[in-house]
Each structure stands twice: as structure tokens, then as C-alpha cells.
Amino acid sequence: AQTVTQSQPEMSVQEAETVTLSCTYDTSESDYYLFWYKQPPSRQMILVIRQEAYKQQNATENRFSVNFQKAAKSFSLKISDSQLGDAAMYFCAYRSAVYGNKLVFGAGTILRVKS
Amino acid sequence: KAGVTQTPRYLIKTRGQQVTLSCSPISGHRSVSWYQQTPGQGLQFLFEYFSETQRNKGNFPGRFSGRQFSNSRSEMNVSTLELGDSALYLCASSMPGTVYGYTFGSGTRLTVV
């Protein structure tokens, strides 16, 4: 079974600074998808960024980028120019490309942004 | 475009009762998945429905069940509620043939007393 590990329960960043959230995963599959979701106090999970395992190029979405290291099974999220609105719980998630339409989530990282 | 709608937002039930939660997906989305979120266990997959058929099931007891209607709306039911069933229940819908299009609702907060 696949597992996703987020080793940082909580992180803090100063507004306008850069922060990196860590995620590692374990799988025997070669084809899969990785996601970062944000969950603000409103509770709705919002997709931040996604990465296909077969793509070597790291995904980027505006201020959000990932460092995908397939061999190391690592998928970190970098948030540049942090804003107060970035404060939320961030979840890393894995989805098999073959076996079923379900997401396996990490435990989450609370991100606090200081003004 | 309306998002994923979950009702009710909050619910308080007594141990032993049963509860039904509802999820209306985005128009055109035929896959609906349910997740349970608790402080202790985190986010766990319950089940997925596609075209009224359960395609995937997580590791939950038989007290947890679901169904999907022809309009893709989905319900999940929990019978004989236990205190440990207190959680945020999230629903996500997606387009067929896509691996990206998960859109989540805001969840139903269930408290069992």
C-alpha cells in the first residue's frame, strides 16, 4: 500500500519570504500522480499544484512550485513571496495511475504566515 | 459554475443513531469520492462511486455505506453511530477520464454525542 509522509507538523514563514514544505511517499508503482492541497479554515480542500510522475519537469503554478525527486520519492512544495492568505493546512497526496480513483493523503502541515 | 455542495454543514447525532450525508457534484462530474477527516487518523478514503456503481472502497466497517443516483448526486450513510465517527466528511467530484479534476466540497462536520 502507498503511504505519504509529511514530517513537518507546523511551519512558519514571514510574509514575502519563501518556505518549503516536505513530503515523501512510498510506492512500488512507476506511474502515479502527486498533489498538494490547501485546506483553509473554511474546510474546503483546494488544489494547489499537481505533478505527473512520468514528467521530469517540476510543476509550477505562479508562486507555487514543486521539487519532484522520483528516485528519492520526494515531493516538496515551495511557496515564494508568502502571503497572509497562504496560511492554511497543506496536504500532500498520492494517486495511482492504475489502481483506482482515490487519494492517499499525508498528515498535513500547518503553515503560519507572520506579518 | 456551482461547486460541490455538501449538506448539511453541521450535524449532531447520538450514539446508536444513523445519519445520511449528501453530496451534489459539479455538473458533468460523474465520479464522487468520500473521505473522512479526523485529528487522529487524518484524511482517509471511504469509497468512490461512478455511474451509480461503487468502484473503490476504503478500509471502513460495513456501517459505512453509500450510493449514487442517476443525476450523480451521492449519499453516504453511517449506521449505529459511535463516538469515533465524529469527523469532517468530505466529498470530492471529478470528471470522467481525468486524473486531475478533483473538486472538494466544504464538508459535513458530524459530531456524535
Keyphrases for this structure?
heterodimer, A: 115 residues, mainly beta, 0% helix, B: 113 residues, 7-stranded mixed beta sheet, 4-stranded antiparallel beta sheet
Main sheet of chain B, how many strands, which sense, barrel? 7 strands, mixed
- Tell me the series of helices and strands of chain A, N- to C-terminal: EEEEEEEEEEEE
Biggest sheet record of chain A:
6 strands, mixed
* Helix content range of chain B: under 10%
Secondary structure tally, helices of chain B = 0
Number of strands of chain B: 11
Radius of gyration of chain B: 13 Å
Q: What is the typical, i.e. mean, pLDDT of chain B?
A: 93
The count of helical stretches of chain A stands at 0
What multimeric state do the chains show?
Answer: heterodimer
The class by helix and strand makeup of chain A works out as mainly beta
Global morphology of chain B: globular
- Mean pLDDT across the residues of chain A is 94
Helix and strand succession of chain B?
EEEEEEEEEEE
Low-confidence stretches of chain A: none
